Amino acid sequence: MNSRQILLSGLFLWIFAVLGTGFVAITEDTTRELIVENERRALLRNLHQLLPAEALDNDIATDTVEVPASTLLGSQQPGTVYRARLNGKPVAAIFNSIAPNGYSGKIHLLIGVYVDGSLAGVRAVKHQETPGLGDGIEVRKSDWILGFNGKSLDNLSRSKWAVKRDGGVFDQLTGATITPRAIVQAVKKTLLYYDQNAAKIFD
User: Fold this and answer.
1) Dihedral sign (CA 44, 47, 53, 59)
2) Is the pLDDT of residue 176 over 80?
3) Interacting residues of 94 by C-beta distance below 8 A, sequence separation 6+
């Protein structure tokens, strides 16, 4: 192979490398935007499970406040609280809370709290609980988690925030007590956090 052929081969390789790199960069950029948009849509679906769209008129996905790490919210990192408003007035706050002591580890929750301190609802959004047992916390598997709707620290004494086996009012899941016990306590602690910080959240 003479020097001219070597030069041409090198040139072709360089062109292919540039084109390949450019294609990967464009694909990554396009994919990143798609991922962000899909995550936003998934977030809105989860938020609107707790608060129907007609209950608010603000962009709840962007009307947020960062709160410091708190043991009541189960996190060692700052967290995001989503704020719902209607005609400029606060309607509810939705917390990213964690039940740290599920049967198979952490259970990530979205917990909606109305301005009056009552629960708009609770959803498990990420967990590793046992299929067929602990995964009854998912609303598509069971209506157990809907039992929190409307409850508050005012209409349910604090000693009753427990599963029935522990003297509370919440059912166990068949064959699983640790999982619902962890969620009940996480929800109670989130309500306590809201009670202590409501003014700051909507400031």
Assistant:
1) negative
2) no
3) 47, 50, 51, 60, 81, 82, 83, 84, 110, 111, 112, 113, 120
- Taking the C-alpha atoms of residue 188 and residue 194, their distance in angstroms, rounded to an integer, is 10
Structural domain count, the chain = 2
Does one domain contain both 63 and 41? Answer: no
The answer for residues whose C-beta is within 8 angstroms of residue 96's C-beta and 6 or more apart is 73, 75, 79, 80, 81, 108, 109, 110
User: How many residues are present in the chain?
Assistant: 203
Cα dihedral 48, 187, 167, 165 sign: positive
Q: Tell me the pTM.
A: 0.79
pLDDT over threshold 60, residue 1: no
Q: Are residues 77 and 141 in the same domain?
A: yes
Alpha-carbon distances of 180 from 45, 102, 119, 144, 149, rounded to whole Å? 23, 8, 17, 9, 15
Contact 172, 150 (CB under 8 A): no
In a shared domain, residues 83 and 67: yes
Q: Among 133, 143, 145, which Cα is nearest to 184's?
A: 145
Where does residue 161 rank: exposed (0-12), middle (13-18), buried (19+ CB within 10 A)?
A: buried
For residue 96, what are the domain limits?
54-201
The tens digit of pLDDT for each residue in 108-121 reads: 999 999 999 999 99
Q: Which residue has the tokens 């508050």?
A: 152
Strand partners of residue 82: 64, 94
